[in-house]
# Entry
Amino acid sequence: MPKEPVYEMVGKRFGKQIVLRRATGERKGRVAWECRCDCGKIRAVDGYDLRTGHSTQCKRCAARAQPSFGPILWRLLHNAKARAKRDGLPCNISLADIVVPELCPLLGIPLCPGNGKVLPGSPTLDRLVPELGYIKGNILVISFRANTIKQNATPEELYRLAKNLTRIMRKKGKIQ
Ligand SMILES: [Zn+2]
# Structure
């Protein structure tokens, strides 16, 4: 049974999307709505995602909203899906879930598109808990540099490593 009456959603605007009609079937037990994005794209959207502001535009428009990162976002998603399939990990993220911050949240260096070249600041997709896969809430966009250092290390391992490396290098007079 639909949780919301049809008349309350049809014709309503959510960001760039206008609700046309109720979509056939449900998504994850929720009512879905056929929406038209301002770009013309028509697709079914979860009513909950609309009302909570999680969905304001189609995936293509969401990718375009971050123009310089657009192609990278597609590649990150494509690679994540391929890796998840290969390793039998769950993957339920979409383009809209991949948000590239200005700075790498782990190293504080600027994230840059790189124009096809892999740079220390190239955005990569990290799984906070690797075995949970690419699911909403478990992914973080970090720099290539940070990803190379971190790999699948836990914060505790990284902390221990940094602490011991600092101690040894100090002792040898390599750092202050
Ligand atoms: Zn659109």
